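queue> holo job accepted (beta-D-glucopyranose)
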Amino acid sequence: MVDPKALLARMTLSEKIGQLNLLAAGEGLATGAGGPTTLGTRLDTGMIGAIFGTKSLASARAMQERALDGSRLAIPLFFAEDVIHGHRTVFPLPVALASSWNMGLIEDTAAFAAAEAAAEGLHQVYAPMIDVTRDPRWGRVAESPGEDPYLAARVAVAMTAGLQGDDPAGPGRVAACLKHFVAYGAPLSGRDYDNASLAWEDLLGLYLPPFEAGLAAGAASVMAAFNAVNKVPMHANGDLIEGWLRGKQGFDGLVVSDYTGVAELTAHGLGSGPAIVARALHAGIDMDMVGESYLAELPELAASGLDAPDCGLCLSAESIVTLIDRACLRVLTFKARLGLLDNPYRGLDGAVPAPDRIKGRALARRAAAQSAVLLKNDGVLPLPAEGRIALIGPFSDDRTNMLGTWAVSADAREVTTLHEAIASRTGVQVTTARGANVVDVPWLADRLNVHGPTVEIDPRDPAQMIAEAVTAARAADVVILAIGEAKEHAGESSSRLMPDIPAPQRRLLAALAETGTPLVVVVFAGRPLALGSATAAADALLYAWHGGTAGPEGVADVLFGDEAPSARLSVSLPAHPGEGPLSYAAETTGRPNRGRFEKFRTGWLDLDDADAAAAFPFGFGLGYGSVRYGAPVLSAPTATGQEGEVTLTVAVTNDGDRATVETVQLYLSDPVARITRPARMLIDFRQVALAPGETASVPFTVTCDQISYPLAPSMDLAQQVWDPGVIQLHVGPNSRDTQMAELTWLA
Ligand code: BGC
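queue> job finished
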């Protein structure tokens, strides 16, 4: 067994610096300015520690051979990739998967993605992305587990377990990389990369818990976020990286920068090359992705040290060398954990077979069905097996957009379109009409097509397109309208000022609503959209997100009732595109909002009450069954002290005539505390399968941990406070429609 410490002792300073350099293979997506030199030179001179973005086993193997030849001590590379919601087989977007609330399903999708990635020689994936976010404008909500820290923490655990199994070096497994550390989901005004200024209580109670959970589940690596948190850019944030992550959480894995994140510290205003490199290394960034700032600056820093009082850091040459040793040892230890120091070709010898893609596709289809949230159903769904369907809308015959953002290794040709998925059902007759373009503004279409064609503007007269759609609708028994966002509407650097259904599609919807033909609206999107008049106009409304390789087939399964809808929103849908940030868990104020406009109350003057009522809360989603909740029953009216606990039990009955899956959700509020607290917060949930007529009794045990909360300035999640007194528990099918049980927690 090669010992990383013994290996470090044999290395020259230059070799150590080389290990901290992380480069892109140049075969994938570039999201920032690249480094000044070529990959080949780095490989031949041993000045590289890892590569991400290889696109085949053969190319990774060739790079490994070259790296081993170029490195005096034959230190192997490791290979990484953005495997965000699947690798070759693409699963629904993370925000969609989180909406399944099905942790077993999420773990299975991660395990399948890991197996596909491992079979191509990848050792680490840049997932899970666990940035909680409450701003529909932010494009990366698509990649996130949604707005809630408890749900996000559960997703972090499920994803880490699926990717790593018991051992990230095990067959078909890879190392997870929790990202982006931290509060990347709280950028000012929802603009990607913008900074976050927030209360420490928010950081500790909202943004850090998913990381704490992922670390506890054993995640082997972490990626820093681009943004500054409370004035300190995360790539220089020693308090949070060395302090909280390593000091408080005891994390001993690898911390990588984000793409050119170290070099970007200059633009953040932290100074020139040597200063920013010293700060990043000192803060605990072990590897420098793409920017090559470490490579450029560390030799001189190690010789002369840094004397930069203007940026608050003076480090002797010896201290810099010690920091280089620290980072290099972490890189080598990570490689040892991946089994690479003992076998540099581990994962690259073709010994790991790719998983069965037919099974993967079936899993992707089930995941898509279980992620699609049924928001409204006046009885038109499920559709009968026979009838005339008018399938209308710019997404009815689409492949590429179905994959969603960050599907960097996918092949859109593998996607079955919604048209194909519906037309393959014997008994239905389908006519189609495009009806509208996704967008009709050329410069916006150009931006959406920046990584390849995703939307095209049909040159026909928009009125003529709508007229054709109306004719098709009039001749049909039911209309299925496929509208929403293109894949590049969401994702990195895709913040939207107005997160709504784009204007040409809204005009189409209004025209179809007037035909009187029953209207089933299917929304494909990468974020929570304000649905506006779509809610009232639709007879049924299915929020399908971007569902991946088998997304449209999963949607068809739900529409025709082969799968019962069971998803629940992982993010609130806003009443209006200008409403973000928003959350069911918003804090109480002195003048609370009562759900409709009242002067001198928290709320919007120019939001129509009808629109306000059309918003959908976190946790919301319908099934095809009809589920009745009994009154919640507490095991005792009081609980006492730190060790106290109480059980709330609720009976749920399926009154419908179809089997259903109900997600029973438990929320807590603490009406008297030392600081303002969320109006309510999710603390537990349980999914129960109910046959027609079946009743299940669902117990939840509540402990003192769940009523505790962090109080600044303690940076320690383990040191929380709680307030004796009244605690309210709310149980129900979503965050709004709940029943309350009150107890007293005694000191
Ligand atoms: C993104 C990361 C991603 C990295 C490598 C960055 O732009 O923020 O999430 O892992 O690129 O592709």
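queue> The first helix runs from residue 4 to 9.
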